[in-house]
Amino acid sequence: MNTSHAPTPVNPHKAGPPLWLLAELTYRCPLQCPYCSNPLDFAQTERELSTDEWVSVLRQGRAMGAAQLGFSGGEPLVRQDLPELIAEARQLGYYTNLITSGLGLTDAKVAAFAEAGLDHIQVSFQASDPELNNAVAGSRKAFDQKLAMARAVKAAGYPMVLNFVIHRHNIHQMNDIMALCEHLGADYVELATCQYYGWAFENREGLMPSKTQLVQAEQEVNVYRKRLDATGSAMKLIFVTPDYYEERPKACMNGWGNLFLTIAPDGTALPCHSARLLPIDFPNVRDQDLQSIWYDSPGFNHYRGDSWMPEPCRSCDEKQQDFGGCRCQAYLLTGNADNADPVCSKSPHHDRILAARNAADHATAGLTGLIYRNADNSRLFFRG
Ligand code: FES
Questions:
Q1: Which UniProt keywords are present, listed alphabetically (predicted)?
Q2: Residue 310 to residue 312: CA distance in whole angstroms
Q3: Which residues line ligand 1 (CB under 6 A)?
């Protein structure tokens, strides 16, 4: 019996609840962005979860303590049961986010989502002008539709939250992008430099900006931010820098199996949206309840805690801040997900990052060299 008054030691490996649930409703999408984070072989995914199966996932997640819910894809709007799922989620008490390209959205759908209780909508753009936007999206009508839907979202009383993925083909447009957002009356603008997973990793050489481009873009954002402050504008600019130009890795997902739970369209449960590329068996909500998936499955326990860490992470005094970085990035860059994230300058594989930076300094390829994310191209990546 413990008679001391010292607090009971907390087991650092004991997982808390999955506070953030990402429901990837479908891999279907009308756009073909070459930086999509969906798996390369998405076109061979088995049948999507039914409405009832999704409702069961939402209920189980909420019972375990999940509070934030994202609906994403692919394009979640292609699911006809989206209003029903939003209503169920809201009734369960989730804070609900819809992450959409805006393609397939209508004024009537925005109204239906508001009626169902949706809390938040984020619309993604590819560029500040229709030519580049539509060329990157692989769709001739995308830009006009996005403009109309960004306005419809705001008119329905939501904050206007816009997301731009930044890469070497649109990084010169930073000022135009911010001006467009200001003109539209955006409330929050995420300028997220491309992260290299899925299709973006495959296209990295054609997408990654040079350091010079990046520094200039960041300066432009800082200047624009000051001007917004000076004029009393409420628009907030969030600039997300790319891992590949950092010297320390990000605390990916805030730690493996720590907060984030992703359910893929076919019911595969993942600790992050990219993890199905790893050589790990992940459980499926069709076979197992969410509680046992989260707490007991080998897939979710694989990189919890720090006993899995090799050197230099194991003895690093920063390991509690970054958890060894990103497992998917370690796998993509070294072929072994156990390795330290090569973004870290202490990693023995940091040369892979330096080589990517060097390639970005000398890259000349245009958009036509990119592999677009569509079912035909996906079939090229089918395994076996
Ligand atoms: Fe999978 Fe970082 S994206 S662990």
A1: 4Fe-4S, Iron, Iron-sulfur, Metal-binding, Oxidoreductase, PQQ biosynthesis, S-adenosyl-L-methionine
A2: 6
A3: 197, 252-253, 272, 274-275, 326-328
76 C-alpha to ligand 1 centroid (Å): 22
Q: Which ligand 1 atom is nearest residue 272's CA?
A: 1
Tokens encoding 16: 């808390």
- Please choose from 194, 195, 244, 274 the residue to mutate so as to test ligand 1's pocket, defined by most ligand atoms within 8 A of CB: 274
In angstroms, what is the span from residue 322 Cα to ligand 1's centroid?
12
- Closest residue (by CA) to atom 1 of ligand 1? 328
Task: For the chain of 384 residues, list the mean pLDDT of each consecutive stretch of 10.
Answer: 36 79 97 95 92 98 98 96 98 97 94 96 94 91 93 95 96 96 96 96 96 97 97 96 94 95 98 96 98 97 94 93 94 97 97 97 90 94 72
- The three-class DSSP label of residue 67 is coil
Burial class of residue 230, CB neighbours in 10 A (0-12, 13-18, 19+): exposed
For helices 174-184 and 142-155, angle between their N-to-C axes, nearest 10 degrees: 40
